[in-house]
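FW: tagging you since you asked about this chain on Friday. Here's the raw sequence from the shared folder, copied in full. Didn't touch anything.
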Amino acid sequence: MVWLRESAGHSTLTLHIQPGAKKTEVTGLYGDALKIRLAAPPVDGKANAALIDFVAQRLGVLRSSVSLKSGLTSRRKVLEISVPVTDIRQRLLGASGI
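HL: got it, structure written out here
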């Protein structure tokens, strides 16, 4: 999986974000990234905060375990998470089979 990598005890997620959606959800692949729709608007960092909250909740980790490494003002974002890759794939994607 190109969108999910593990290095130095951390996992890195490459994401394509669609802010302002009707609901927050993982929708599938978008090129080499995992696409996530966010209900939050892309204003004053609300979408970034909502993304971190959503990922932390889906993975069952503290918000402080998820950090935005790049893409502060872009739709393409890279998150670093202190969770093993195998746990991320199962928890984030669930039964969607992506």
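FW: DSSP finds two helices and six strands in the chain.
HL: agreed, and The domain at 4-78 is CATH 3.30.1200.10 (Conserved Hypothetical Protein Mth637; Chain: A;).
FW: great, closing this out.
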